[in-house]
Description:
Helix content is 36%, strand content 28%. The protein is an alpha/beta fold. Strands 1, 2, 3, 4, 5, 8, 9 and 10 form an eight-stranded mixed beta sheet that branches. The chain has a two-stranded parallel sheet with strand order 6-7. It is elongated.
Amino acid sequence: MRLFANTTATAEFLPAALGTFLSRHPQIDIDLEERSSREIVRAIAQNLAEIGIVGDEVNPAKELQTFPFAEDRLVLIAARDHVVSHQRTIAFREALAYDYVGLAAGHALQEQMEDHAARAGRRLKLRVRVPGFDAVCQVVGSGIGVAVVPAAAARRYRRSTAIRIIALTDNWAPRRLTICVRSFAALPAHGQRLVEHLRARAHA
C-alpha cells in the first residue's frame, strides 16, 4: 500500500502510528514516501497512491475525501544565547533579519519558508542546508543561525540540543494535517483499516 505524506507527518506523527498498525497487521506492507502537500494531492487524484497526509497549505477537500489526522504549529528555534532567544513570540518577517539554517533544496517545508520570505519581500540568509530536523536543531543549538521547524520536533530535540523555542505569530504557523483519499469506500480493506487507525489517532 502506498502512503504519501508531507515532512511533518513523516518525521513527527507517522512513525509511532505506523509502528502500532504494522505490529497489529503483519500481513500488510506500507510504502511510505515523503512528498510536498501539493504533490500528494495530485498523486492521490491520479491514483498514484492510495492514501495521503497533507498540510493545510492545500485544500484537498475540493477534489478528495478528507479526514483530520493531527495538529501542530511551526515555531522559530534559536540557540540559548542568541539575541532573539529572550523573546516569547516573533513574526517571521522579523526573524528574516538573522542567519538561517535551512533544509535541503526541494524540501517541502524549505520551499514553504522561501515562499513566505518572498511574500515579505526578503530572502532567507542561509548559512547552511542540512537534511532533517535533528540536524537543523543541532546546528541551531551550536549558534549558527535560527530555523523554523514543527513544534513537535523542537520539543523533542530541546532536551538534547541547546535551543530555545519562540512562537511564531503568523497566521500560517498553526498547521492541521489531513488524511486524503480518492474514496474511502473504494479503498481495499487494508487501506480502510489504515485510514481508520490514523483517524483514531486524531482523537487519541
